[in-house]
Amino acid sequence: MSEYGGFIWGIDESKRAFVLKACIEDNDTFTDTISASDWKTKHAEIFLISLDIRNIDYAAVVRRSKKVATDKYGIRLSNFVQFTPRIPVEEIENLLSSFVKRYFVKSSTGVGQRVPPKTWAEVTNVIKSLRPQAAENFDRLSSLR
């Protein structure tokens, strides 16, 4: 079992989610900032991304850069894997022994936490079983981190 635990990042602002979705579709990348004190990230991470807090839309590699403001790191999200159709968080939770919503890091507040390795492995296995057509690309993200 891997000792890696990733992040689930929920965009909880509808207008912003619309803009970010366009960036993903047009450029396959976008940048943002995260709170240095709230997010204990390494240089590169895997994020599951929800554009509405109810569904998982994408997975991506996230690379942290230098501090760009007081207590803020810059991040670049890239190499998106889209889940089509979107995966309802409730569907994932129904197949797991734990609730994943508590691990959501909300973009507007930064509140949330890293998904522990055991739970992350369960979540990623469920996602790959629900969307087998995306499994190979999803696995490829680990090699890019």
Explain this structure to me?
The structure is a single chain. By secondary structure, this protein is an alpha/beta fold. It has one domain (7-144). Helices cover 30% and strands 37% of the residues. It contains four helices and six strands. The protein has helices at residues 14-27, 89-94, 117-130, 135-144, and strands at residues 7-10, 29-35, 44-50, 55-69, 72-88, 104-106. A six-stranded mixed β-sheet has the order 2-5-4-3-1-6. The longest helix is centred in the first third of the chain and has 14 residues, at 14-27. The mean pLDDT is 88.
Query: SSE order, as H and E?
Result: EHEEEEHEHH
Secondary-structure-based class equals: alpha/beta
Query: What oligomerization state is this entry in?
Result: single chain
What count of structural domains?
A: 1
Percent of sequence in beta strands: 35-45%
Helix content: 25-40%
Task: Write down the Rg.
Answer: 14 Å
Produce the secondary structure layout.
Layout: E1 7-10, H1 14-27, E2 29-35, E3 44-50, E4 55-69, E5 72-88, H2 89-94, E6 104-106, H3 117-130, H4 135-144
Parallel strand pairs: 1-3, 1-6
Antiparallel strand pairs: 2-5, 3-4, 4-5
Features:
single chain, alpha/beta, 6 strands
Structure described in brief:
The protein is an alpha/beta fold and 145 residues long.
